[in-house]
Amino acid sequence: MKGTPIMTPKLTTLLLGVAALALTAGLARAETNSTRKPRRESIALKKGPATIDVSKYPDGIKDNYEVFSTKCTQCHKLSRPINLRLRTPDEWSRYIKRMMHKPGSGISSADGKKIYRVPRL
Fold first, then answer.
1. Cβ–Cβ under 8 Å, residues 112 and 67
2. Measured between alpha carbons, how far is 85 from 91 in angstroms, rounded to an integer?
3. At 71, phi and psi to the nearest 5?
4. Those residues with Cβ within 8 angstroms of residue 85's Cβ, 6 or more apart along the chain or in another chain
């Protein structure tokens, strides 16, 4: 047939070799990612306190903490934001805003303001 490309044995071998190489590289990358040691920051977040004792805090702070613990645990453990070492209030504000935009977070603007006011360690 005119115009029909013909696959030569060399071309077939080359294409199979490229496909096998790509598959091998993908499997090696997946294995590396699954056996990689956790970052120091990740370990620190898990080793710190999982809650804050707000029993002696004013009622407003207790209410804010309730919103904080309810909303933030929808996506991750509470120890993550409690132990996160952000240096300035602006960094904490940006972190909360980023979480507000995550799908399913359910954090409203009013909730974000309450979460911002929760004292952290």
1. no
2. 10
3. -70, -45
4. 41, 44
Tell me the angle at which helices 109-116 and 59-72 cross, rounded to the nearest 10 degrees: 120
End-to-end C-alpha distance for the chain, whole angstroms: 76
| Whether 99 contacts 107, CB under 8 Å | yes
- 105-111: Cβ within 8 A, 24+ apart: 105/71, 105/74, 105/75, 106/71, 106/74, 107/71, 111/67, 111/71
HSE (CB half, 13 Å, CA atoms) of 57? 16
Q: What is the pLDDT along the chain (121 residues), one digit of tens a residue?
A: 565 566 677 777 776 776 666 666 665 555 555 555 556 656 656 677 888 888 998 999 999 999 999 999 988 888 888 888 887 899 999 999 999 999 989 999 999 999 999 886 6
Identity of residue 108:
S
Q: Pull the structure tokens for residue 41.
A: 């920051």
| pTM of the shown model | 0.61
